[in-house]
Every structure is written in C-alpha cells, then in structure tokens.
Write a structure and sequence with these properties.
Shape: globular
Strand order of the largest sheet: 3-2-1-4-5-6-7
Strand content: 5-15%
Number of domains: 1
Largest sheet: 7 strands, parallel
Distance between the termini: 40 Å
Mean pLDDT: 97
CATH superfamily: NAD(P)-binding Rossmann-like Domain
Structural class: alpha/beta
Order of helices and strands: EHEHEHEHEHHEHHE
Number of helices: 8
CATH architecture: 3-Layer(aba) Sandwich
Length: about 240
C-alpha cells in the first residue's frame, strides 16, 4: 500500500517541488493551499494526468476548524497520513522598527500557529493512534543564525526548531519521528525582489558558490521521510551550501 504525505503550502515554490517529488516516489500526495488556488488546480491536474495519486484542499492553516476539516478530508480519501511536511510560511523583508503589528501577527500566526494547528490535528486524528508517523518541519537558515531585516521571520523559524526538538522527545515512544530542514538561500519567489547585484553578493558568501534550488531542499525532505533516516529524530539539517557551518 502506498504511503500518504501531506504538504502544507504545496502549490508553489519549495512546497510544489516537494509534492512533485513525493508523487514520483509513489506516495499519495495531499496538497494544502490557501491563496494559490490556480497553481494548486494546475498542479493537481498535471500530476493526475501523469498517473500520480494526488488531492488538493484549500485551508487557512491559522484556522484550526479549517485545518481539522482538511485533515479529515485527506484521511477519508487515503485512509491515513504517514508523513507531514509543514512547509507553509510567509516572510516580510523589512526593518524591525518599520514592520507593522498586523504583519508581525500574520507571520507568527502562519509560521508558528499554523504549524502547530496542522501537526496537532494530524497527530490526534491519525499518527498517535497508529503509533507511527514522520513529521518534517521547514525552518530556515535564519532560524539558526538570524537574518537582518527578517527579525520576526527569523524568530518564528527559530521557534520551529525548538518545536521540532521538543516534539521529537514527546513523540519518540509513539514511534513518530520529528525533524527540521533549515534551507539556506534558495531560488524561490521570496527572492524575486532582490537585484542582480544583491544576488551576486549573496552567491559570493556561499562556499559552494551558488544559490540553492528547490531540489536541494526536496532531496533532504525525502531522505528524512525515508527508512534511510529511521534512526534520526529531533535533528536539524541545513542545505545551505556551507553559508553556515
């Protein structure tokens, strides 16, 4: 029987790449989206036409009621959720003194509360009773070392790391592994506003001399989801090209 994965924020960017790669590995793929409906529908149609098992569901992960309905939907369709990838997240590149209270709340609610909501729902509705599961949280290099002009984002991604380590201890006897991936600078829409000069400067600070791509992150996620990492829990793996060592 094929395993099932739920990817939050799976309609575009790193989440889309993760979803596609899990599909190619034979998983049933559950894709959560909120605002990227056209992307989600296009991705679902493409993967189904290619013969993969995929379903999409619109839910605001900051809303626990919507999250519970989403998880119920995916479990009813595929009977289980074996792997959860908490990928959904937002950022706001700005001086801390200039960021609004509304933006602060949105970042915290999405990056932290949203992750809490989805994880709690999947655990209570599926993984705890089965006494098996695999949770992979997408943090960031800035959760490890902090990023100037991304203070609130950095704080939430650091919180994801603490969440990962604590939850791994709590769930270990239930045979549920919890790990985090902390990507470095990756080519996504979050970097669209950077100038060529800024991108060149970033590249010069990376020992492997390139900005990462979505596959660099997806490869780590698939490794953590596989039995090749069955003795790994509570860890943070950072594909960052040596930018932080």
């Amino acid at each position: 029987m094929n395993k099932t994965v739920l990817v939050t924020g799976g309609a575009k960017g790193i989440g889309e790449k993760i979803a596609v790669d899990f599909a190619k590995e034979g998983y049933n793929v559950c894709i959560n989206y909120n605002k990227s409906e056209s992307n989600a529908i296009k991705l679902e149609n493409t993967l189904i036409n290619e013969g993969y098992s995929v379903a999409i569901y619109k839910a605001d992960i900051t809303n626990k009621i919507e999250v519970d309905k989403m998880v119920d939907f995916f479990i009813s369709k595929f009977n289980t959720i074996d792997v959860l990838v908490n990928n959904a997240g937002i950022c706001n590149y700005n001086l801390f003194t200039d960021i609004s209270q509304e933006d602060i709340k949105n970042i915290i609610d999405t990056n932290l509360i949203g992750t809490f909501n989805v994880t709690q729902s999947v655990l209570k509705k599926c993984m705890i009773n089965k006494k098996q599961g695999n949770i992979i949280n997408i943090s960031s290099i800035w959760g490890l070392v902090g990023g100037s002009c991304e203070v609130v984002y950095s704080a939430t991604k650091s919180g994801i790391i603490g969440f990962t380590k604590a939850l791994a201890k709590e769930l270990s006897l239930s045979n549920i592994r919890v790990n985090a991936v902390a990507p470095g600078c990756i080519k996504t829409d979050m970097m669209e506003n950077f100038t060529d000069e800024e991108l060149a400067q970033i590249k010069s600070e990376i020992p492997l001399n390139r900005i990462g791509d979505e596959e660099d992150v997806s490869n780590v996620v698939l490794f953590l989801a596989s039995d090749k990492s069955k003795y790994i829990t509570g860890q943070v793996i950072s594909p960052n090209g040596g930018m932080v060592i």
